[in-house]
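ok so for the tutorial part 2 we go from a plain amino acid sequence to predicted structure tokens. step 1 is just haveing the sequence, like this:
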Amino acid sequence: MSLLNIVTTPSSKLKKPSEDIKKEKIKEFKSLIKNMLETMYLSDGIGLAAVQIGLNINLAVIGKEATLDDKDLILINPKIIKHSWRKIIAEEGCLSVPGITKRVPRFAKIKVKALNQDGQSLNFDASDFLARVIQHEIDHLQGILITDYV
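step 2 — the prediction. this is what the tokens look like for a chain of 150 residues:
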């Protein structure tokens, strides 16, 4: 495994929307996923999107600290397909925006559709902290940073 370089602001790479990964190509990303998880944990992060390491692909990893089952969550081509009307505003930090925290509104509950690292379909509900982390990572995949919130 190897530690990956995290792209930080003001890099324009962080502002580019990412592209979907074809299902038949997912197996090619297994070692990248392991390296992303290692980089995230060694950087004291909770989540990491591929765009944060300079790759313009729809891939995000979320650490077990945010999940309810104490397992890392791998999201490939994630989409929010439903959300609550209620939003919660809370402080967020970001590995790509070092030294800055921002109050960001996020949906309290979301329904997510994605693929996992084996190419299997995921369709699940998330709430509270996990919902916040997923929305933060999906924002990255769409070229949105916490500094874009007023």
